[in-house]
Design a protein that fits this description.
about 325 residues, alpha/beta, Rossmann fold, UDP-galactose 4-epimerase, domain 1, 2 domains, seven-stranded parallel beta sheet, two-stranded parallel ribbon, about 15% strand
Length: about 325
Amino acid sequence: MKILFLGGTGNISAECAAWLHGRGHEILAVSRGRAAVPPAYRPLRADRKDPAALRAALTGVRPDVVINFLGYELADVQLDYELFRDSVRQYVFISSATVYAKPPRRLPITEDAPLGNAFWDYAQKKLQCEQWLRQRWQEGRFPVTIVRPSHTYSPRWIPNPASSSSYTFAARLERGQPVFVPDDGENPWTLTAASDFAAGLGGLVGQADAVGEAFHITSDEVLTWNQIYAEIAAALGVESPEILKVPTDFICRVAPRLTGTLQGDKAHPGVFDNAKIKRFVPEFRCRKPFRVGIRESVAWLRAHPDQQHLDPQVNAVFEDVVAAWRRAGA
């Protein structure tokens, strides 16, 4: 099949494109050109947010399947509908498990769990996109499949509650600087390797029965944040890291930018029932435990320091919260 990726070089999408290409599919990737598109794919140069440029790049392109990793606003999926409604066999919208109501009403979370995240505009916009696309499918106009990743990481990410897309958290541990964990660190959480996620997504691509359905795709391994921090420290070779246990409400007062990612996600239990994706894709299994995946991430980022993307703003968040907590006498 000819598969068009809107995004194909990111944390999750790069692994998904590689998985599908490895099984003989033709991969086309829309990219702004900031990240290299593998030579085996067909690059389409355009800014996702520029409708005229996107239309021009897609002239004469008729994919069988479109996978949208870059849909964050309603206008994004409305444009896709205009571009692909008369030609595509399947449109896969990459949403987010943050669309589920927080805190979850019951565990493990299934795809029919209540939706609606009161804390995070990112999740609210994703849900708005989902609902609009579902309406088009119910009208018989658009063959939509919705996929909801949770906290998914690749060798380029060091997962943590503040910001996973840089080496900043790991660098603090290496330097012996303190970090915080929300509340007592015992919140159960799920981390999924992008290579495992790719097998689940890839199995849905081209599957007619998956049209009109929503799936989350996560690992079955559940760790507390304390266990996650311990595995990261061990991968870094850091003994006795300084980890402050700070209430979520306190963190969000000091660093409001974390309200969505904590109160809207990582400060609540993230435990998922993957029975549905396994029913549709029987061969799907998450084979990479976090203790293996995080060691791969650390090794890769140490070997590619230019990709560590140390973020002064993220570092400042840790500094501000730690300083405020100590001033509070905790």
